[in-house]
Amino acid sequence: xxxxxxxxxxxxxxxxxxxxxxxxxxxxxxxxxxxxxxxxxxxxxxxxxxxxxxxxxxxxxxxxxxxxxxxxxxxxxxxxxxxxxxxxxxxxxxxxxxxxxxxxxxxxxxxxxxxxxxxxxxxxxxxxxxxxxxxxxxxxxxxxxxxxxxxxxxxxxxxxxxxxxxxxxxxxxxxxxxxxxxxxxxxxxxxxxxxxxxxxxxxxxxxxxxxxxxxxxxxxxxxxxxxxxxxxxxxxxxxxxxxxxxxxxxxxxxxxxxxxxxxxxxxxxxxxxxxxxxxxxxxxxxxxxxxxxxxxxxxxxxxxxxxxxxxxxxxxxxxxxxxxxxxxxxxxxxxxxxxxxxxxxxxxxxxxxxxxxxxxxxxxxxxxxxxxxxxxxxxxxxxxxxxxxxxxxxxxxxxxxxxxxxxxxxxxxxxxxxxxxxxxxxxxxxxxxxxxxxxxxxxxxxxxxxxxxxxxxxxxxxxxxxxxxxxxxxxxxxxxxxxxxxxxxxxxxxxxxxxxxxxxxxxxxxxxxxxxxxxxxxxxxxxxxxxxxxxxxxxxxxxxxxxxxxxxxxxxxxxxxxxxxxxxxxxxxxxxxxxxx
Amino acid sequence: xxxxxxxxxxxxxxxxxxxxxxxxxxxxxxxxxxxxxxxxxxxxxxxxxxxxxxxxxxxxxxxxxxxxxxxxxxxxxxxxxxxxxxxxxxxxxxxxxxxxxxxxxxxxxxxxxxxxxxxxxxxxxxxxxxxxxxxxxxxxxxxxxxxxxxxxxxxxxxxxxxxxxxxxxxxxxxxxxxxxxxxxxxxxxxxxxxxxxxxxxxxxxxxxxxxxxxxxxxxxxxxxxxxxxxxxxxxxxxxxxxxxxxxxxxxxxxxxxxxxxxxxxxxxxxxxxxxxxxxxxxxxxxxxxxxxxxxxxxxxxxxxxxxxxxxxxxxxxxxxxxxxxxxxxxxx
Lengths: 581, 332
Known about the structure:
CATH architecture of the largest domain in chain A: Roll
CATH superfamily of the largest domain in chain B: MetI-like
Radius of gyration of chain B: 25 Å
Structural class of chain B: mainly alpha
Number of strands of chain A: 21
CATH topology of the largest domain in chain A: Dipeptide-binding Protein, domain 3
Oligomer: heterodimer
Largest sheet of chain A: 7 strands, mixed
Number of strands of chain B: 0
CATH class of the largest domain in chain B: Mainly Alpha
Radius of gyration of chain A: 26 Å
Shape of chain A: globular
CATH architecture of the largest domain in chain B: Orthogonal Bundle
Helix content of chain B: over 70%
Distance between the termini of chain A: 49 Å
Number of helices of chain B: 15
CATH class of the largest domain in chain A: Alpha Beta
Largest interface: A-B, 61 and 58 residues
Number of helices of chain A: 18
CATH superfamily of the largest domain in chain A: Dipeptide-binding Protein, Domain 3
């Protein structure tokens, strides 16, 4: 009898763990009026003017509203402003440097305070001049924000009077007036729609002091802050007095739960404990779908790419020991080796790799995300883009071998195994991509040239300031503004020394066109300028763009209107979601 | 007794000082950059330099360490120092470091206490059973389970439990929080496995040792009931090493709940510490590690005191002066 019981018990355990079928994602032990959204990490304080990571941005998006709104396909609409300022409606000055914003009347903060121009001036002052603000650089083209009347503000855009003053910290409006001159600014509306420019209540922020963002939070948005009982959980509830009509909100409450372990995210989606998450384990998306969870995969704003250090003695571009990149440079052995490596790489296998992108990405043909103004869509014969195809990227074994063969014997003697140092952030996916690059170069050129060194990302940024200690980097870039100007930071000569331009790439043609794109309002002219930037980049090849990563969401079937609510930034307009059942 | 206690408490000082020095030193040499992290990747050089100076990171190691102990004056980044119980605010959450630790520590305490309770309630009886029936089939089975419990990685055990009892059977939730008893079951079971195995093995070996003693044989020869022999005479003595181990296990459970808390998304001190490490939140890491070190040391002290109460022989040595060597006594 004992034996029988023991066998039955063992069979029960084995059977339940191996063959049991999921029952579907019934809501487990929770209020159906509450939407549970998973954040990838613990959020920073809910203070949009100061903190910028996506985790708190997702929460603040529902609490604090911006002057402009932007749809997932990069179209602008008025949010706390009454209309979108344009040249046509006279709210943009003729030279494009001054925007007059008429503010929406009758809007109230969650605590009942009225929203007005003072709050706008206060919020932008904090973004630009608060010691802790992490978005100063993104908003650095603002020269002044002035109150015209209680519901009108005037924003003047500008640029540094003298580019050498880039090292001077501008800590007040007076400093900005001293060091800047008025100038049109191409991405102005993107900046006004960026989540960091969420408008805060002057009175509340000043009264709360250091507790603002953790214990006290207020905004004008569709949801209001309720509690933050522990670092991993934030609760908000519907703002019944929302100017945008609270009746349109499908969920009464939203609970945000921070969860960094991807397998656990999959588990809680399957068990129905949460409604929505983006940091899924891509390896298991099939099993999540099988359990009845909807998977949404759409183009994102992250580009994964490789960097060739132009200061490197192996893959750089130097002449007589100095950087040689002013548009027409001399071909050298290092140029040929760079191209040999470039043509040895094929990003398509990374995309298919189940434990990497598992199909949720597309091959990148340039250093600009698709859908952006600066993305080159044509590939005329003779242009560098003509060498690209969706099936095998720029990979060309014959070209790679020919470039490698043309290297002088003296230089080739230096190319011993693992002589090229490739540094990469010590994050699993990045290291996998770097190892793929290493293997592909080895297979194509027949020499194991690359040594992959994983290290802390902060260290890579430090090294990238001077270009010392590495020949190549594999990294990623995310453009939260949705405008090409922000992507251009990576290859703008002005970024050398900041750690962003790890290639130390400094090309006059590229720099001039980035400046044109930045300081003009004419979208057609911006398009032409940014196209020239991409063409020059893909000719010089200081970078090898690899993949554009998709945003991936797992959603409970009761949640609807996902396509309209999800952004390439991985942010979701939760107030646009609908409840299916 | 009081002298012994004072001596032990006094010994805490160098231990904690050593811990702070090591942890601070390790964080100092770690290639992370809080100023860059605060400003984000696209910070201008001017803003970066300013932030580094504001945070006091431009000063040498000794200055930074002294500030960490005795305080740093700055309108935004200032704090009173570890010795005054203030490490300022977390770089990430902007909350007071010790306030955050004190609010999350009870959650960890619930997990650790639950795990230790389960480990004792199951481990001790099984240990006794194994010892009284040593080398029987039951003993073999329990030994195998103990080996499994001691050697199974926590993350793997947790995933198996979640897969079985949350994903498939839907008995317990996969996500845990201290307000929901059902959600505590899986993390407590996961956390208790290792301790249960250790306690069970310790009870078994200790019981076997005691059962070989002459006084047990005498009790049996006198015709005493076997239950009385085991529970009254053997168990009390056998429990002394078990209590020591259980105390140490409790300390380890408090510090070692990190993985379990992360896997079950449980809001305890371990989760806070891991998040702080991921995000290079130096004040939070320092605060959490120092707090765990202090807790561990205090628990060790309490175990030593408890040890004396269980074994009167040890208690009697607390107040006794150091005995002179036998040879010296005889000469006197």
